[in-house]
Predict the 3D structure of the following.
Amino acid sequence: MQLTDSELKRLTEQALAEAAAGRIKPVVGQTFPLARAADAHAAIQSRAVFGKTLLTT
């Protein structure tokens, strides 16, 4: 199924509104300090992480 541009826009706006209201929260699988960005990329590429991978300062 392919979404039209207007459907995609409507769903994106709805998802952003839900996130702003605190009803949608991302799953953070791992965090890496910025100095270890290469390790973060390797974890993503190997699919070793469930959820989002964040770089921190």
The radius of gyration is 15 Å.
